[in-house]
What we know:
single chain; 108 residues; mainly alpha; 4 helices; 0% strand; elongated; Lipoprotein
Amino acid sequence: MTTRHLQVIILSALLSGCAGIQSQLDNEKISSLRYDNVACPALVAQRNQAVAEISRLTNGRGYQDPNVVTGFGPFLPDYRTANQKQAGALQGQADSMTRSIDRRKCTG
Length: 108
């Protein structure tokens, strides 16, 4: 085994131990069923608060999932800023709340 092969093996092992960006993005997608027990007016208020916080964190641009090259998501580290990570988590919650609101036909 050459030194070059050893370097590639070590680098691969190190990169595989990192929390990939894809797993972090997957964790942001949550089920809307957890919000079905929340009263409609309270849920609409929570969703609106989350959307306002996303707007604040992203300076009014809204959250957009990062463009990750297909196949590299498990290997790339999560390179987003702290605000982007927080906005991503809030966006997942807001999307789930919206699905629950739509399914239950809440007004607001």
